[in-house]
């Protein structure tokens, strides 16, 4: 069996007196879509920051493609596409300038793919990034993350605050295509129905602890075909659901 794309072992992280991650362990093979669900403050972004090497493990370990993302950021980040909730793009650049700028960082950049994505997402290359809507910025963030065909796509709350059409673009067209090409997607979300629609494997996190991590089909069988929202409530309580937007 091939090496897991993401391997996290007994990862712990505290911020002052808050335990953000508590002995988190995950081993995720390549070529699937992994949905990470949890209420506000559960630890999703903190976990993702460790995967990207933006935070160093206080205890435990993180390996991406078998590499330590803190010790070898270039080796890891050149193979990861990342789109965050904040999607911090430089507003003063034009869309085509940002694409050219991003291209310079990635030897595997695929111009034809970038052009096709810009067209599919109806983005005008000549406009300033600052004038784009939130949904258009989300699409542009995806173009920059996808055009070098990363082996692993990491999305932190990719659809939060976006309209349903953009969410459909992200979750259906983009995510499924990547998995069908044998690459891996790891995305966090509050939107349980969308996770259910697209994920092969679901990980639930609460107060920094993984409380469930299994293939979606297995979870559905175990819980008698209940929806992910119902399962979430049964594992985490009603209070958690109110902060998931479900
Ligand atoms: P959300 O869905 O609201 O984005 P999340 O699941 O991504 O939440 P995290 O952002 O990982 O949650 O936060 C986990 C916990 O760690 C929270 O209690 C948060 O307040 C705390 N935390 C995260 N980053 C910091 C920081 N830089 N300083 C202090 N506390 C932090």
| Ligands (ions, cofactors included) | adenosine-5'-triphosphate
Distance between the termini: 36 Å
- CATH top-level class of the domain at 1-72 and 190-246: Alpha Beta
Rg calc: 18 Å
Report the count of strand segments: 9
Backbone shape: globular
Task: Tell me which CATH architecture of the domain at 1-72 and 190-246 applies here.
Answer: 3-Layer(aba) Sandwich
Describe this structure as you would to a colleague:
With 246 residues, this protein is α/β, with parallel strands linked by helices. The chain has a domain at 1-72 and 190-246: Rossmann fold (3-Layer(aba) Sandwich). It contains 10 helices and 9 strands. The chain has helices at 44-51, 73-77, 95-103, 111-120, 134-146, 164-180, 192-198, 216-222, 228-236, 238-242; strands at residues 6-15, 18-28, 33-37, 59-64, 80-83, 152-156, 184-189, 201-206, 209-215. The strands form 2 sheets. A 6-stranded mixed sheet has the order 5-6-7-3-8-9, with helices on both faces. Strands 2-1-4 form a 3-stranded antiparallel sheet. It is globular. Adenosine-5'-triphosphate is lined by residues 15, 18, 20, 38, 40-46.
Features:
globular; 37% helix; six-stranded mixed β-sheet; Rossmann fold; alpha/beta; binds adenosine-5'-triphosphate; 10 helices; 246 residues
Summed up:
With 246 residues, this protein is of the alpha/beta class. The protein has helices at residues 44-51, 73-77, 95-103, 111-120, 134-146, 164-180, 192-198, 216-222, 228-236, 238-242; strands spanning 6-15, 18-28, 33-37, 59-64, 80-83, 152-156, 184-189, 201-206, 209-215. It is built from ten helices and nine strands.
